[in-house]
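Anyone able to model this chain together with iron/sulfur cluster?
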Amino acid sequence: MTETITNIEKSVAQQNAQQIAVNQVIHEGELTGRIHSIETGGTVDGPGIRYIVFFQGCNFKCLYCHNRDTWNFKDGIEVTVKTLMDEIVTYAPFFNATGGGVTASGGEASIQAKFVTSLFKAVHEAGFTTCLDTNGYIKNYTPDINDLITETDTFLLDLKCMNDDIHKKLVGHTNKYTLDFAKHLKELGKKMWIRLVVVPTYTDDEENAHAMGKFIQELGEAVERVELLPYHEMGKHKWAYFNDPYQLDDIEPPSRESLLKIKNILLNYHKEVH
Ligand code: SF4
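re: yes, here you go
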């Protein structure tokens, strides 16, 4: 039964990751990262055409997570920067024509800051752009984290909820570090896209939209765009695979009207809301 489910679960992205790792040579002491999967030709996770590396391991436990299988750091595939770059450079014409490049997603890629930084340095040397898709839960600005910030061109920052009580219910942690991270990026003159997953009864209320709008407004030019991502149930089956209860069983995806209402509120605070 488990084997059957595992086979069904193997997405094209996971197969891609396994394929590129098949012939790699890892030298003793070489820096490696643990990845879950790879998606090529992405168009929504950063500017231009993107090569998206989904890293293994996450420090949040979002109730709506559709990447439940990325949580455990020990799972996934071990890869070197060279293995990834050998594949990434083959997409150069697409990146060069669109301003695209590599997006580190997950899971939470910042947990593997040293490896992601090393990858991003190589991506920059090849002339492509870098994006970090992150929950921003950075408690300590270690040298590895600071280097990762330096090597990241655009941050895709998930602001899960402005109300900290709801935030804790939704992801298991306070929003304090994420909000501080956004302010820190602004001070450094970094660019970010702010993303909100609209989850009915958790993050779809007007109060949250206004609070988020005000926060984004304070970040000023640092925020290039704001994106609303409607909650969906596509990752629900993964929770069943891990025998985890899915607590949002009764929650339906948000209506168009609800999304439009939030969008219109946010447009009072930022001109680019999608
Ligand atoms: S931060 Fe992302 S990968 Fe981690 S639990 Fe939340 S939705 Fe899932």
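The two ends are 41 Å apart (CA to CA).
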